Amino acid sequence: MTKEFQAYIKKVSARIPDEDIPSLFKWAQSRDLKKGEVLLREGEVCREFYLVEKGYLRTWYNKDGDPINLNFTFEGDFTTNLKSLNGRLPSDLTIEAGEDSRMWVFNLDLRREKYESNPEIVLFYRRLAVHVLLASEEHSNLFKLYTPAERYRYIEQNNPRLLQRISLSQIASYLGVTRETLSRIRGKRQ
Q1: Exposed, middle or buried: residue 95 (CB in 10 Å: 0-12, 13-18, 19+)?
Q2: What is the pTM of this model?
Q3: Are 69 and 142 within 8 A, CB to CB?
Q4: How does 66-81 read in b/e, with b if 16+ C-beta sit within 10 Å?
Q5: Distances in Å between the alpha carbon of 41 and those of 8, 79, 92, 113, 166?
Q6: What pLDDT, in 10s, does the model give residues 34-62?
Q7: Which residues, other chains included, contact 155 with Cβ-Cβ below 8 Å and sequence gap of 6+?
Q8: CA-to-CA distance for 75 and 161, rounded, in angstroms?
Q9: How far is CA 157 from CA 80, 143, 162, 187, in A?
Q10: Are residues 163 and 155 in contact, defined by beta-carbon separation less than 8 angstroms?
Q11: What share of the chain is helix, strand, coil (3-state, %, to 5)?
Q12: Which among 1, 39, 53, 181 is least buried, having the fewest CB atoms inside 10 angstroms?
């Protein structure tokens, strides 16, 4: 385990003791995915958190046959479907690799009996759920508070790697606009 992974964990739970971090990764499994390979399919029950080591994950919702991008998770961050994970409900979204990727899969069902006896690890998983929820809330607030042009500026300032690594069509979907509208917004910015 590298210092990089320790930093990923500390980003979620700064107070987790350094000696407990190897336990988290001992119980996680590394997984390589090809671009487009699905981690969580619509209709499956989510039982895992995913930490991206390389590449990125795209979380999307199928609306009448059209994919609507909800999130992009890059290196060093976690994602899951909290609604499915918490309620043991079928997922209403899909999580797939946006490019060839490597991630760590933290399966809560397989590891629960091992970590429940360690309060620091239980606390980490609770904080991880809050971390993922706050990221989701940030995206939701973009739509409540900003116009499409303001959303684009927000991404430029706060998450420029989206613009560097994601196609314009997928960014348009993420922002809730057509590709033509996104082109107009970008044209006004130059």
Answers
A1: buried
A2: 0.88
A3: no
A4: ebebbbbbbbebbbbb
A5: 26, 14, 8, 26, 21
A6: 999 999 999 999 999 999 999 999 999 99
A7: 162, 163, 171, 175
A8: 11
A9: 25, 17, 11, 17
A10: yes
A11: 50, 25, 25
A12: 1
Q: Which two tokens stand for residue 4?
A: 């990089």
The topology (CATH level 3) of 24-109 is: Jelly Rolls (2.60.120)
Reading the block at residue 98, the tokens are: 């946006």
Written as six digits, the tokens of 19 are: 């000696």
User: What is the pLDDT at residue 116?
Assistant: 64
Total length of the chain: 190
Q: How many other CB atoms are there within 10 angstroms of residue 170's CB atom?
A: 18
Is 40 in a helix, a strand, or coil? strand
Task: State CA 13 to chain mean position distance.
Answer: 17
- pLDDT tens for residues 81-135? 999 998 999 999 999 999 999 999 988 775 556 656 677 777 888 888 998 999 8
CA atoms within 13 A on the CB side of 139: 17
Amino acid at 110: L
Q: Please give the structure tokens belonging to residue 158.
A: 């706060």
Contact by Cβ (8 Å): 51, 77: yes
